[in-house]
Design brief:
Elements (H helix, E strand, L loop, with lengths): L1 E4 L5 H11 L5 H10 L9 E6 L2 E14 L5 E12 L8 H15 L4 E5 L11 E2 L5 E3 L9 E5 L10 E4 L7
Parallel strand pairs: 4-5, 7-9
Antiparallel strand pairs: 1-2, 2-3, 3-4, 3-9, 5-8, 6-8
């Protein structure tokens, strides 16, 4: 398996992969397409896991903002979606994609990655509950334990505070 940056030639396979990974619901596939056509898309952070000619996993990190109490905006990343072909789930593909995505995002000097995700899965990658670090999310009603953050640049967690605002492309 190799992990590489997604290319336009991969788009159809990535769409089908998310469709399969999410039980033939195309919400995640459509989200990827909306992000790709928005100004929040970071092509270097749309990664695919490939075996032979087959894409078996995909992760996407895109730009979002934390609006501080003073009203200024701090650019951060949102991790969504991540999908793995059902035949390859529970074999570490998603983990490898997340680790590589975090590495590349840190190299691009982004300060934080935020997500809504399973509280038993994401902490092993360094994610912690976001609200306890001065971050909030009001666009989606989610419990504290599923709204998480990971620091990419030392000293940013707790320094960047305010409300995470997902871009319009996340709203459908």
């Amino acid at each position: 398996m190799i992990i590489r940056v997604e290319t336009p030639q991969d788009y159809a396979q990535v769409y089908a992969l998310h469709d399969m990974a999410f039980n033939n619901k195309d919400e995640e596939s459509a989200l990827v397409e909306r992000i790709r056509t928005s100004d929040t898309f970071v092509p270097e952070l749309s990664l695919v896991a490939v075996e032979g000619e087959e894409i078996i996993g995909h992760v996407l990190l895109s730009k979002a903002h934390v609006v501080t109490p003073s009203g200024s905006k701090q650019e951060v990343l949102a991790l969504a979606p991540i999908g793995v072909r059902p035949s390859h789930q529970k074999h570490g593909v998603g983990s490898k994609l997340i680790v590589e995505g975090m590495k590349r995002a840190a190299e691009l000097a982004y300060p934080l990655v935020l997500l809504i995700g399973h509280p038993d899965y994401y902490p092993k990658f360094g994610f912690v509950p976001a609200r306890s670090h001065g971050l909030d999310l009001k666009q989606f009603p989610v419990p504290d334990h599923v709204f998480m953050v990971r620091e990419l640049q030392e000293g940013q967690l707790g320094t960047i505070q305010g409300e995470l605002q997902y871009p319009a492309c996340f709203m459908g």
